[in-house]
Amino acid sequence: MQSPVSILRQLAPKAAPALVAAFGRTFDFQVADVTTPLRLAQFMAQIACETQGFTKLRESGKYSAKRISEVFGVGRHSAAVTPAEAARLAGDERTLFERVYGIGNPSKAKELGNLYSGDGYAYRGGGAMHSTGRNAYTRLGLDENPDLIETAEHCLRGAFDHWTRTGCNRLADLNDIRAITKKVNGGYNGYDDRVAWFNRIWPLLRDGSAAPESWKVAQASETTRVLQTQLRQLGYDIKADGLYGPATTGAIVAFQKANGLKADGIAGDLTTTTIAARIAGTSPATGTVTVSDPPAIAPPVAAGVSTITLAEAGQQIADKADVVNTYAGLSDAVGYFAAGLTAIGVTVIVIGIARTYIIPAIWPARAPVPE
């Protein structure tokens, strides 16, 4: 396997000099146990995305209004920046970071440990994986001089710290770039870019020999094995070997298309929930719908509450929760009022579930007594 710095030089001839120097410290990679081809490829793919191709060691806030809305807008970030705010914040780094990471966003500031005015900007994303917040910088001993995170001595320290603390080596062994992205990014921003970088990096790790497909050298995942078993129950002809390869991806795409989901081949939360719901209502052997005898008397439905399936209810509650989280980021009375109305909607859904499923299970309906 080629050395990390050799691969970096091939990928990014204009990489930040401090990062090149840090990649030359192979002992640090050994300490963090980033020593296998899969681990190194996954590690570098995340860094490539976070640093704009290994070139930027500090988060830039020189965003357009459109980009601010995409990253920090309502429904995308706890800051819930409105379009009008985005227009005012465009190009103003200090004010933007105070608004989204600092005292302008109390919940995020508390999470990051940003206590004082100016912390949002001072402790913005820095280093190879853009460590963010006073807490992260303090853990690295850089809270008194945060700009040191851009130096060769420190720029990889935060990345190694986060990588090992969050168990990313294990996820890399499973070749699970989606789970790694969630650990590194907190969401899935730039997911396609991370995948593209991985696909560029992986062949370089084979010392000129033909690179086997990465999924073939990954460790089997019990989570993937369960997923494959579920797909087999639904009639998809794949092996339950725990390896997320082309056959599994193809089965997921086919299932997503058949169920009106985004056909990306990724077994995300909505896809796995839908798979479970389909299994609950189908026969494992044939995939045909299983119809049970209806109760003698249908349970009453409260006025204004529709009868829904558990899967539909779960999705509706998840949708409502997302809205509540969005409104919770607003600091004015309108936000709290809207969040309150949304919470009422969740309550109505829960009542519907109780009336439709729970109460009939506890007190089964009895057939009417003939007169």
Automatic annotation (TrEMBL):
Residue ranges annotated for the Peptidoglycan binding-like domain, each copy included: 224-272
Domain of life where this protein originates: Bacteria
Pfam families (alphabetical): PG_binding_1
Keywords of this entry: Membrane, Transmembrane, Transmembrane helix
Residue spans crossing the bilayer: 333-354
SUPFAM superfamilies reported in the protein's UniProt record: Lysozyme-like, PGBD-like
InterPro entries: Lysozyme-like_dom_sf (IPR023346), Peptidoglycan-bd-like (IPR002477), PGBD-like_sf (IPR036365), PGBDSf (IPR036366)
Record keyword Transmembrane helix present: yes
Protein name: Peptidoglycan binding-like domain-containing protein
Taxonomic source organism: Ancylobacter dichloromethanicus
Top-level taxonomy: Bacteria, Pseudomonadati, Pseudomonadota, Alphaproteobacteria, Hyphomicrobiales
